[in-house]
Design brief:
Order of helices and strands of chain C: HHHHEEEHHHHEHHH
CATH superfamily of the largest domain in chain B: P-loop containing nucleotide triphosphate hydrolases
Strand order of the largest sheet of chain B: 6-7-8-3-9-10
Structural class of chain B: alpha/beta
Number of domains of chain C: 1
Order of helices and strands of chain B: HEEEHEEHEHHHHHEHEHEEHHH
Strand order of the largest sheet of chain C: 1-4
Largest interface: A-C, 60 and 71 residues
CATH topology of chain C: ABC transporter involved in vitamin B12 uptake, BtuC
Radius of gyration of chain B: 21 Å
Number of domains of chain B: 3
CATH topology of the largest domain in chain B: Rossmann fold
Shape of chain B: globular
Number of helices of chain C: 11
Strand content of chain B: 15-25%
Oligomer: heterotrimer
Helix content of chain B: 40-55%
Structural class of chain C: mainly alpha
Chains: A mainly alpha, B alpha/beta, C mainly alpha
Shape of chain C: globular
CATH architecture of chain C: Orthogonal Bundle
Bound molecules: adenosine-5'-triphosphate, magnesium ion
Distance between the termini of chain C: 53 Å
Largest sheet of chain B: 6 strands, mixed
Helix content of chain C: over 70%
CATH class of chain C: Mainly Alpha
CATH architecture of the largest domain in chain B: 3-Layer(aba) Sandwich
Chain lengths: ~475, ~300, ~300
């Protein structure tokens, strides 16, 4: 503890830190003692009985005490020291490096995304690549697309929408219903799902976009829940909680089918071994293109008057009105556009799963998408993509922790801890970087020199 | 009354072709009457000053003119040089700026602080650019007509950056500017909307004497250009007296004086209002004045 | 008439629980302007604490008086849940105070995920049923084989809610703590300058909100006799709806809103369809916010230009 002594100054603070750590331990004991130490389980007679796990409680409390002690004696002093020490001004080399990194990051990332399935197939074979293309690639890209779609509403226009999943659901159910009932093709229904979602966005947005502050967040949350509850209860149309199954697969632009029984099955036509990997790789590229479409449109719009008006709205709505901007319409376009991309993603989701049910469109889903936008840094496309990779990829990786079974025994299910860790990560990232990963704002236009804008000046909007 | 007397003596050029006519405007917040039965004119091409002690209701008048508040009574008539007329009290706020061409600044500056100066000035030209971008569609497709319109807008922005001495900082975020520069940028932003009437809420507040003098030059410059009439709220009497053609004085939401700067300066009611003399003394002063005038013109 | 009376009784019971939770939302929003999304899950955790201690008292320690056990359980749940919320505020919200406005909201959403999943991991995903307690009822009215009844449990809930609200009202209106809270609500900087310990006041606000949620949790457990790790969300959102309906920031508003939401829900189920009862609650939330954003008893927000 030599370091602790030198950094925390007078010796009394070690005693203080110890007292503090003990206090934290007592609090931890109060909280974890009953909730962890007294486990309730149903016995054969369906009665609850208590089994005790004091050892586990002792471990947790011990960790809390040690952690708190380390935090107060070592980590915090070190952090304040770092903050206090004047950072040497970045050298020209560093600045150039950072600029180059920023310039090269997006293109390199793009190239990687395009060759990713090929890499997976090359290293793991078609069957082996399935998991990495589907569970990781497609899953993450869906959230990247949702994050980018919501980014228009939350990040650019500064309107906090906690019911974004409603539009995702509208897209998914539009495709599911119209494809199963009328046998319409995905390629027709994709734009239709987007338009339907956008119309819902306008319909819901019109009354609520006048609202200020957190009220908007709450009404959108309410709308999200209403749509989910209607999906559950309107059984005649939606088949209730049981959901809609056997949703047709997407065809390769009508040329090839991925149905095993179809005569124009992709593998059959090309004389390949049957595998679901082709379909997954096709889906991967499809969602990649959809996500890139979202990014392209957003980047384009940011440089147009409507995009600038969104950002101005986030900065100061009253000033916008004083400059003759119709704020209601401007908000509605953001809302409708965000909804449209949500709708696209939804119909893709329905086609990929082959099954939709209200389960997939809970508030938690909205919360995760908002979290991705905020963790990424509001308004930053790269940041949002990084956050989606970190949060969704990270939790998917946690499914892979089977080796922990060897440590904790067979009964241990690492999957249970997935969401727990996800939630903890949300809290920790917010504390570490309240403004998200990439918080600086890039100006949309410049006279002589493009300088990025520090996040401390950028407002977060009011809604 | 003395002010009435004096008004009969001098011509009132601003009544000839007013850009804005305020008639019997009242603004009530619950029990509080912030502006009561207020009538005055803003002459075309003039710099008109609206002055009065704190809480007199000046900002409220601005909010009524620019549509942020709906007056509980009265009429606000705006007349363009081209002859179009607008009843401002019937228009929503953003249309007042877009159609009636009334621009304003705010007492507590409202810039888009996370956007660059140039972006601030482009947002101000939103409606024109929106049309040029074919409501976004042509813009997304990258049509040359939009490119041209954007270039023109940047030229306009450059012009006003130049006028306000902010060209060097065009690519910096507005929130980084020092206070005085922020005030100037707000004026530049308002001017980028191409207004017929510019309403400035305490533009000189917090400026040092040099900045204040620069502001005077800027305002006189804008008047010189001839398209924009200016209505300004100001506490700094030196600014008011130096540049304004016409002064309207409010106290407790009521107009107490209206005339040329020199008339207003010598109006005992104004003096009383600013020196905080109570009503009795005002009456005394008025009586004395009346006696004097009666004595002078038997 | 019987149906009406029955729904009224059920509605007030449910509304009392919502009202108790809603106070936690409204107080936190009033003092730091934050929507504490984790509050519903704090309520759920409190119900688990109550469940565990009730079991401990009745099966392990052999306490025979159900009422004594319930009172003890409620007090323990209030203390421990208060402690939990105190810790949450310290760890997850305080470091974010005064920073980016969305940060505490996201942190709270994260905390809500943590709490429900922690309980799932620690106590298992299955429902936790308790043996029925206080199962007697009193028949108030009877016609055509339909009786309007009030159960002992319902009476207990009404009495406990009324007593606690009275005590709570006293604390907020008459004690220095309540005064400090109101001062912080008005202007936190000024309150700090005048010597109010703002951090402590905010902490105590979280503790008080959690204690009331724990009362609600204990009553919920007694009423329904079962609790699950996912039970935080829906009552949480409804209580939040109640807080908004009553006018967020207003304490009587929270109670009034809670009662209204409870009544709407039971009457809707009783007279229309049980399917859409939650839709009704959320629709009312949306309608109230659109047409009366300040809620029933809240102060209107003036937009100063
Ligand atoms: N939205 C509102 N709601 C209630 N009262 C208001 C509102 N806006 C202004 N007032 C009241 O109207 C009166 C006039 O306010 P106003 O801001 O117009 O004064 P002012 O002349 O601009 O003063 P200052 O020189 O301090 O800027 C004040 O008493 C103020 O409190
Ligand atoms: Mg003012």
């Amino acid at each position: 503890m030599a370091t602790a002594k030198t950094t925390s100054g007078p010796g009394g603070s070690i005693a203080g830190a110890a007292r503090d750590a003990i206090l934290a331990g007592v609090v931890a004991l109060g909280i974890f003692g009953p909730l962890v130490g007294l486990k309730t389980e149903q016995n054969m007679q369906n009665e609850l009985v208590i089994t005790t796990r004091w050892g586990l409680v002792a471990i947790i409390v011990g960790i809390v005490i040690a952690g708190r002690f380390l935090l107060t004696t070592t980590i915090w002093p070190a952090m304040t020291r770092n903050k206090l020490r004047d950072k040497p001004p970045a050298t020209a080399g560093e600045v150039a490096f950072r600029a180059r990194l920023a310039r090269w990051f997006a293109p390199t990332g793009l190239v990687f995304l395009f060759i990713y399935p090929a890499l997976m197939v090359y290293f793991l074979g078609f069957q082996g690549s399935l998991k990495w293309v589907d569970n990781f690639g497609i899953q993450i890209l869906i959230y990247v697309m949702l994050g980018w779609g919501l980014n228009i509403v939350v990040g650019l226009a500064g309107l906090l929408d906690l019911g974004y999943v409603a539009f995702y659901a509208v897209g998914a159910y539009s495709y599911a219903l119209l494809a199963t009932h009328f046998g319409l093709s995905f390629w027709l229904l994709l734009p239709m799902a987007g338009i339907l979602a956008a119309m819902w966005g306008i319909m819901l947005g019109f009354p609520v976009l006048r609202l200020r502050g957190d009220y908007l967040a709450i009404v959108t949350l309410a709308f999200g829940e209403i749509i989910r509850l209607v999906l559950i209860n309107f059984r005649e149309l939606t088949n209730g909680s049981a959901g809609i199954s056997s949703i047709p697969k997407i065809t390769f632009f009508g040329i090839y089918s991925f149905d095993v029984s179809a005569p124009n099955n992709f593998a059959k036509v090309w004389g390949l071994a049957m595998s679901s990997a082709y379909y997954k790789i096709f889906l991967y590229y499809l969602i990649l293109l959809l996500a890139l479409l979202t990014a392209f449109v957003t980047l384009r719009l940011r440089k147009l008057p409507v995009g600038r008006a969104w950002e101005a709205l986030r900065e100061d709505e009253i000033a916008c009105r004083s400059l003759g901007i119709n704020t209601t319409n401007t908000k509605l376009t953001a809302f409708a556009l965000g909804a449209m991309f949500g709708g696209f993603a939804g119909s893709f989701f329905a086609a990929r799963q082959g099954f939709v049910s209200p389960e997939s469109f809970t508030f938690m889903e909205s919360a995760v998408i908002v979290a991705i936008v905020v963790l990424g840094g509001m308004g930053s496309m790269i940041g949002v993509a990084l956050a989606a990779v970190a949060m969704i990829g990270g939790t998917e990786l946690l499914r892979e922790l089977d080796f922990l079974k060897a440590v904790f025994g067979e009964g241990f299910d690492p999957d249970q801890f997935r969401m727990l860790i996800f939630g903890l990560a949300m809290v920790l990232v917010m504390i570490w970087k309240p403004r998200g990963f990439v918080s600086a704002r890039e100006p949309t236009v410049f006279l002589t020199e493009r300088k990025s804008i520090s996040s401390s000046l950028v407002k977060e909007g009011h809604g | 009354m003395s002010s009435v007397l004096s008004s009969e003596q001098t011509p009132r050029p601003w009544t000839a072709d007013p850009v804005l006519t305020v008639e019997h405007v009242q603004m009530r917040f619950g029990g509080l009457v912030a502006v009561n039965d207020l009538s005055f004119e803003v002459g075309r091409g003039d710099i008109t000053a609206l002055i009065g002690p704190n809480g007199a209701g000046k900002t409220t008048v601005f909010n009524c003119i620019t549509g942020f508040y709906k007056p509980t009574q009265g009429m606000l008539l705006l007349k363009h040089a081209a002859g179009d007329t607008f009843l401002l009290e019937r228009m929503p706020d953003f249309r007042i700026s877009a159609k009636a061409k009334v621009a304003r600044t705010f007492q507590n500056i409202r810039l888009f602080s996370g956007m660059t100066l140039l972006e601030n000035l482009l947002v101000a030209q939103h409606n024109r650019l929106m049309l040029a971008s074919g409501m976004t569609i042509l813009g997304v497709l990258g049509m040359p007509s939009y490119k041209r319109a954007e270039k023109e807008s940047i030229e306009t922005a450059k012009f006003w950056l130049d006028k306000t001495g902010l060209t060097a900082r065009a690519d910096d975020p507005a929130g980084d500017l020092p206070y005085g520069a922020q005030r100037r940028l707000e004026i530049a932003r308002a001017m980028c909307t191409g207004p017929e009437l510019l309403c400035l809420d305490e533009p000189a507040a917090g400026l040092n004497p040099r900045e204040s003098a620069e502001l005077n030059t800027l305002l006189l410059d804008i008047r010189q250009m001839g398209k924009t009439s200016i209505l300004l709220i100001e506490h700094d009497m030196s600014v008011v007296m130096e540049i304004s053609d016409h002064v309207v004085v409010l106290e407790y939401g009521v107009k107490i004086s209206d005339g040329t700067p020199s008339e207003v300066r010598n109006d005992p009611r104004v003096i009383a209002a600013y020196l905080g003399v109570d009503d009795e003394e005002v009456e005394k002063v008025e009586e004395q004045l009346d006696e004097l005038t009666e004595g002078a013109t038997p | 008439m019987e149906i009406f009376l029955q729904q009224l009784i059920n509605g007030i019971t449910l509304g009392s629980i919502y009202g108790l939770i809603a106070i936690g939302y409204t107080m936190v929003f009033g003092i730091i302007g934050m929507v504490n999304f984790a509050h519903g899950d704090v309520f759920m955790v409190s119900a688990f604490i109550a469940m565990i201690f009730f079991l401990l008292f009745t099966t392990v320690l052999g306490v025979s008086s159900v009422i004594m056990a319930l009172i003890a359980v409620m007090i323990i749940a209030m203390v421990l849940t208060g402690l939990l919320n105190w810790a949450i505020e310290r760890v997850a919200y305080r470091p974010l105070r005064g920073s980016f406005r969305l940060a505490p909201l996201i942190s709270a959403i994260g905390m809500s995920i943590v709490l429900s999943n922690f309980i799932q991991v620690a106590q298992g995903p299955r429902n936790k049923p308790l043996p029925p307690v206080l199962s007697g009822t009193i028949t108030l009215m009877e016609r055509n084989n339909f009786a309007a009844t009030i159960s002992y449990k319902q009476i207990l809930i009404w009495v406990v809610t009324a007593v606690l609200l009275a005590g709570f009202w006293y604390v907020v209106q008459k004690t220095p703590l309540g005064r400090a809270q109101r001062a912080c609500e008005q202007d936190r900087k000024m309150a700090a300058l005048l010597g109010v310990n703002v951090d402590r006041t905010i902490s105590l606000t979280f503790v008080m909100g959690a204690a009331l949620a724990a009362v609600a949790g204990t009553l919920y457990l007694t009423y329904y006799g079962v609790v699950n790790f996912s039970d935080g969300f829906t009552p949480g959102v409804k209580a939040f709806t109640a807080a908004v309906l009553g006018g967020i920031g207003s304490l009587p508003g929270a109670v009034l809103g809670g009662l209204l939401i409870g009544l709407i829900e039971t009457f809707w189920s009783g007279y229309f369809s049980i399917d859409y009862k939650d839709v009704a609650a959320f629709s009312i939330l949306a309608i109230v916010l659109i047409f009366m954003p300040q809620g029933l008893l809240g102060r209107p927000e003036v937009e100063k230009v």
